[in-house]
């Protein structure tokens, strides 16, 4: 969605309200944030020396279906989308530089399945790495943290595997944010790891 543009300013207040109303209809008012003060913390991440513009709206979906609904709205109206976990990333990827819609994954934080045999887990994208490690530790597994923020860093994909026992990483996955085409549809990619190196 990086080719989108912010909701136009000037005589566009009705247009912006129309988009927000559509998001509320699809996700529920409790999952749409529009207050300026409430959106301030969604205007930056841990990246130093980058602008911190406000998004036009923040949504907090609770399911893959709701994420798809947001993508459909954004695609149709040509609005950029910024998926966000806890904002600990250091690349500026969660900063809404062009306004648009920030999609917070904080409410999608369930661990759906742990497959210790294949060294994979099925999780929602808001799962915190430390919570995932707490869940897999009884199986003698560890998901290596990618930064010092593992206590509040989110996984960011729905089906994953990079667990360590005695060997290297194994991965399978659902594509994050609904296959990357902007169509709002979702797909599953990959399957159980069947290799011998574990």
Order of helices and strands: HEHEHEEEEHEEE
Considering DSSP H and I runs of 4 or more, what fraction of the residues is helical?
10-25%
Largest sheet: 4 strands, mixed
Rounded to an integer in angstroms, the radius of gyration calculated over CA atoms is 18 Å
pLDDT average, as an integer? 75
CATH superfamily of the largest domain: Uridine Diphospho-n-acetylenolpyruvylglucosamine Reductase, domain 2
Q: How much strand?
A: 5-15%
Low-confidence stretches: 148-162, 165-182, 186-198
Query: How would you name the oligomeric state of the polypeptide chains in this document?
Result: single chain
How many distinct beta strands? Answer: 9
Biggest sheet: strands side by side, in what order?
A: 1-2-4-3
Q: What is the annotated CATH architecture of the largest domain?
A: 2-Layer Sandwich
Structural class: alpha/beta
Spatial shape = globular
Number of folding domains? 2
> What gap, in angstroms, lies between the N and C termini?
37 Å
Give the class-level CATH name of the largest domain.
Alpha Beta
Could you name the CATH topology of the largest domain? Uridine Diphospho-n-acetylenolpyruvylglucosamine Reductase, domain 2
How many helical stretches?
4
């Amino acid at each position: 969605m990086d080719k989108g543009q912010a909701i136009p300013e000037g005589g566009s207040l009705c247009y912006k309200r129309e988009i927000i109303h559509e998001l509320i209809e699809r996700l529920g008012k409790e999952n749409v944030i529009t207050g300026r003060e409430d959106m301030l913390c969604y205007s930056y991440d841990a990246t130093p020396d980058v602008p911190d513009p406000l998004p036009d709206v923040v949504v907090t979906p609770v399911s893959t279906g709701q994420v798809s609904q947001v993508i459909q709205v954004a695609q149709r109206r040509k609005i950029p989308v910024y998926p966000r976990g806890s904002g600990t990333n250091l690349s500026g990827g969660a900063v809404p530089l062009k306004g648009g819609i920030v999609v917070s994954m904080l409410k999608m934080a369930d661990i759906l399945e742990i497959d210790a045999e294949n060294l994979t887990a099925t999780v929602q994208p808001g799962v915190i790495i430390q919570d995932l490690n707490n869940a897999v530790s009884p199986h003698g597994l560890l998901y290596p943290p990618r930064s010092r923020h593992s206590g509040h860093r989110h996984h960011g994909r729905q089906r994953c595997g990079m667990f360590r026992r005695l060997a290297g990483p194994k991965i399978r996955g659902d594509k994050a944010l609904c296959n990357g085409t902007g169509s709002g549809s979702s797909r599953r990619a990959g399957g159980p790891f069947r290799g011998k190196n574990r």
